[in-house]
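User: Small ask, check this?
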Amino acid sequence: MSKADFREYTRDHVVSFRKTSEDFGGLSNMAPGYPIRVLRYHLRTSEALYQACRFPHLPHVQRMIIEETSPMTAKMRSKPYRDDSRPDWDEVRVKVMRWCLRAKLLHNWSKFSALLLATGDRPIVESSSKDDYWGAKVADDSHFSGRNVLGRLLMELREIVRSDPDRLMELPPLDITDFVLVGEPIATLVRQVRLDNSDKTSAERLKKDELGSSRSSRAPLQRQLL
């Protein structure tokens, strides 16, 4: 998908999002209220996690990004260092984005899965005025046009939630070099559910005798559906 083709979408037939305050604004990486815990670090948004993954060799930059309270500020803080992104960034960025979206889902399962399923079978489009790679631009009064890679990854994730949710009980680290956060290798994430709308999370209990045989036959977590 790193070389995804351009697509055209009819505006009346899609779920589009641009601002986090919109009905489907939670689909945005900028959306607050979807925290992710990686190692001992509390990341406020999937945007901060994605941007931090650019710089495994610069732990001080990663720390600066993940400590920002605003996702837009986290993104902007990374900009001066973009030329020093990991050398294979263009090749791995879609894999990283897919992983970050799945991390967002695992640690906000009830809320984010419900939002994904609420889109039904409609195409999901990130509406953007500038970015037709991750999103799609308004082509005319009736259409969006762009690669819409973020929207397509969200549709891929929606299909997993709908047809094979058990496949996302755990999320192993990406199989790429230097997948680290502030100098530590990123570990497997476990699905968490929020209880009674509180901020407390409880990891779903996974019994070894229940998972042993099923894990070996389960399709790999990183298998692409789209």
